[in-house]
Amino acid sequence: MHSSAVGHFTLGCVLEDQEHQVAKEERETPTTDSMPPLLRQAIELFDHQGAEPAFLFGLELIICGLKTT
After folding, report:
1. What is the model's pTM?
2. CA distance 39 to 18
3. Within 13 Å and on the Cβ side, how many CA atoms surround 25?
4. Which pick of 6, 40, 48, 52 has the fewest CB atoms within 10 Å?
5. Which of 2, 1, 13, 11 is nearest to 58 (CA)?
6. pLDDT value at position 29?
7. CA-wise closest residue to 14 among 68, 40, 39, 51
8. What is the mean pLDDT of residues 19-44?
9. Cα–Cα separations (whole angstroms), residue 18 to 12, 24, 37
10. What residue spans define the domains of the chain?
11. CB-CB contact of 44 with 35 (8 Å)
12. What span, in angstroms and rounded, lies between the C-alpha atoms of 41 and 36?
């Protein structure tokens, strides 16, 4: 059961990252005037850092949660 949760999380992250890479190449330069500042910052951060920091953070949360159960 635990490995299933980790597996589903990993697969979801991989699919999300692949989609983001395609979308990043296809999207036009966003107009920052019409975008909420926090959303703009999140997109810029994800564009520069990639998915790895978010994946590692989420995986750590899952593992810590499993340790407490």
Report:
1. 0.65
2. 20
3. 5
4. 48
5. 13
6. 67
7. 51
8. 80
9. 10, 10, 25
10. 2-28+35-68
11. no
12. 9
